[in-house]
Design a protein that fits this description.
With 338 residues, the protein is an alpha/beta fold. The chain contains 13 helices and eleven strands. The strands form two sheets. A six-stranded mixed beta sheet has the order 7-6-8-5-9-11, sandwiched between helices. A five-stranded mixed beta sheet has the order 2-1-3-10-4. The longest helix is centred in the C-terminal third of the chain and has 24 residues. The relative contact order is 0.18.
């Protein structure tokens, strides 16, 4: 082999290595508005990254970026291409989402994992046609566990909630708060700790997970628990459509077949369940924290509120063109399967 041939061969090998390295380093920017220790970051997003790496043999990975935009602006951030992937909480954008309220209704029986799987299936059959996430690609949906009332003063009954200043995330939680007579305080979840610590709010409707995720054991030492929860919270993991379209066809197929949709939704729901269990354990271990379970009479009274709110939400979905009753029944039947 002469010198020129050796040089050409070396260049070819170098280019191949560079090409292979470039594929291995396809790194998607994941925007997160949660604190670093929150399980959406350490459980869901890390789980998503792991699933993408395995599905693509390491050719696609992800990197978390903090503080790129406030929670309500995440969808616009992804639409504009300032990040590749993010998570949105539908309740932070009042009036923009209607179909997502279906899964937020109280009264469903089952885990967050079961609810998240049911959510994806019902989304595909009934809700995707609403095109409420237009401009982005929905790659997963998930639902947090039952939302409960956490407060810095003792709540002994449903009646005690009336008149309290309670942080509410939006969506069905807002409907529930209004029915219970609370003074709604609207702040994003990352602001809950300081809002309670400052006395600007008496409490918050949020799942047990937040006892750890937002350190509520310190500023909301009392939990009033409604079996089944006061509501559930709806989230979507969204991706920039152009980013997805720009991936090689085999990579897109691997992500669609093995990660996006039901697999990622199931994984994320399971993380919520694990986080709720940890939050409850932390509350029970804290000497100055208490959990008060609603009495049978209060549960019956709340069931009447649930009936009214369910009828209201199903009417909203029907007005939007969804077979609301069928979608509602499908959520319950799919949750029962998981």
């Amino acid at each position: 082999m002469n010198g020129i041939t050796r040089l050409i061969s070396a260049v070819a090998v170098s280019l191949a290595a560079l090409s292979s390295g470039a594929l291995a380093e396809t790194k998607l920017t994941i925007s997160t508005w949660l604190p670093p220790q929150h399980r959406i970051n350490t459980g869901m997003f890390e789980g998503l990254i792991d699933m993408m790496e395995k599905a693509t043999n390491g050719e696609v990975t992800g990197e978390l970026k903090f503080g790129l935009a406030p929670p309500p602006a995440q969808m616009d951030l992804i639409t504009d291409g300032a990040a590749d992937i993010s998570i949105i909480f539908h309740g932070y954008q009042p009036g923009r989402f209607v179909g997502t309220k279906l899964i937020e209704l109280p009264g469903y029986e089952g885990s967050a994992e079961a609810a998240s799987v049911a959510y994806w299936r019902v989304y595909e059959k009934y809700l995707a046609a609403l095109d409420e996430h237009r401009g982005v690609k929905v790659i997963a949906l998930n639902v947090h566990g039952p939302g409960q009332a956490h407060s810095n003063k003792q709540i002994g009954s449903l009646a005690d909630i009336s008149g309290l200043k309670m942080r509410i995330g939006g969506g069905v939680a807002g409907d529930v708060g209004a029915a219970l007579g609370v003074v709604g305080i609207r702040v994003p979840a990352p602001k809950v700790y300081e809002t309670l610590a400052s006395g600007a709010a008496d409490g918050v409707f949020i799942p047990f997970e937040s006892r750890i995720g937002f350190k509520l054991t310190e500023v909301a030492r009392n939990v009033f628990e409604m079996p089944g929860g006061f509501y559930r919270g709806s989230f979507a993991i969204i991706m920039n459509q152009e980013t997805f379209d720009g991936l090689p066809e085999d990579i897109r197929k691997a992500l669609e077949d093995k990660v996006f949709g039901e697999p990622a939704s199931r994984m994320m729901g399971a993380v919520w369940d694990e986080s709720d269990a940890a939050g409850r354990a932390a509350t029970e271990a804290a000497a100055d924290n208490t959990i008060t379970v609603a009495s049978p009479a209060d549960q019956e009274a709340f069931a009447s509120i649930v009936d009214d709110i369910t009828a209201k939400v199903l009417a909203e979905l029907a007005a939007a063109g969804v077979d609301a009753q069928a979608a509602y029944e499908m959520v319950k039947s799919e949750m029962a399967k998981n």
